[in-house]
């Protein structure tokens, strides 16, 4: 458990690149719009080459993504998109110049670059909210929100973003408190090794 | 269906005109960047509708390029604006 | 099958075009740059998404995935560019502070002793620059 030969370590690291390679390959074939042997083989070579030449840091720290929750996230996103899209459209037609807005500070509880980026992106994607500034260290988002009339609206916007955050955390398997300790000896100060052991 | 395509194109064209107005008027460089970005988006939408209406798929790969260029262009331009304002 | 696809297109095309138009209207009518971002984002994501999905429903199988790819790509990149433009707008005083009901970012900047952008040279704080 504690001593792992570097060979298999490298293998598991290579295995983690497979989804990326498959995605790039698919993209290549899709853009060519043909499935001849040259395109297939060339695409595979290009995909592997790109992954080898431009390695990305591993972004998913621990936590197992849950497809069902992710699907729920997508459905919620689409309904949010349409709903707030209509709100902003109505605002543009009805009030136009006198649209009240505010910049709201949203404290987050997730502590991972990837999840914070995801929350910020989803927030910006829905009309009516644009993330203006991200404070990574203090885990804060600063959100410009559009139809905001009073203090109650500000509080509601804040809790809206935090609801998105909870959904994202759940979809990525990061639900707080639900983290079960792995089968090996778990030391609280050594979480990095622990998550690595769980993956392979 | 032809009427539907025509109407859709007309509405998108009207939206494009309004965006052009903002592009001309926009007090800040950022407004113009944004308007250009939206204009490219509308070009993509109109091209897609046109491809369906004329049953001609030649322009489809162009859409991918347009989407890529619009993104890179507006991000770069926004960075330049920030740099320029910061020098003042 | 064709009827269903035709119906999908018949619904999605006008809806997408309408969102494009409303987005353009908002782009024209909203008072400051940051507010206009909201309108732009709407035309870019909702409008284009609906139109592209509607077009994909009419396309022969080979081209539909490319259109969906463009839609996906737009959905991913539009927030990034509007976030960058919004950040730049805030730092270069592209937003009308008098229109804001409340500005909690300014509150924090004042607490940290950082001069507000627009009054002084915009200053980068390192923790926000990630």
TrEMBL record, chain A:
Ranges where the record places region Disordered: 158-200
Ranges of Basic and acidic residues composition bias in the record: 158-168, 187-200
Entry keyword set: Cell membrane, Membrane, Transmembrane, Transmembrane helix
Localisation per UniProt entry: Cell membrane
Keyword DNA repair attached: no
Lineage top rank: taxon: Bacteria
Membrane topology: Multi-pass membrane protein
Spans traversing the lipid bilayer: 21-54
Keyword Cell membrane appears in the UniProt entry: yes
Family designation: Belongs to the CPA3 antiporters (TC 2.A.63) subunit E family.
Name of the protein described by the UniProt record: Na+/H+ antiporter subunit E
Native organism: Streptomyces variabilis
Highest classification ranks of the organism: Bacteria, Bacillati, Actinomycetota, Actinomycetes, Kitasatosporales
TrEMBL record, chain B:
Compartments where located: Cell membrane
Transmembrane segments: 6-24, 36-53, 59-81
Top-rank lineage group of the source organism: Bacteria
InterPro entries according to UniProt: MrpF/PhaF-like
Ranges in a coiled coil: none
Principal subcellular localisation of the protein: membrane
Recorded topology in the membrane: Multi-pass membrane protein
Keywords: Cell membrane, Membrane, Transmembrane, Transmembrane helix, Transport
Family that this chain belongs to: Belongs to the CPA3 antiporters (TC 2.A.63) subunit F family.
Protein name: Sodium:proton antiporter
Species this protein is from: Streptomyces erythrogriseus
Phylogenetic lineage: Bacteria, Bacillati, Actinomycetota, Actinomycetes, Kitasatosporales
TrEMBL record, chain C:
InterPro entries noted in UniProt: PhaG_MnhG_YufB
Domain of life per record: Bacteria
Keyword Membrane set for record: yes
Membrane-spanning ranges: 6-27, 63-81
Family as reported in the entry's similarity comment: Belongs to the CPA3 antiporters (TC 2.A.63) subunit G family.
Protein keywords: Membrane, Transmembrane, Transmembrane helix
UniProt keyword Transmembrane present: yes
Annotated protein name in UniProt: Monovalent cation/H(+) antiporter subunit G
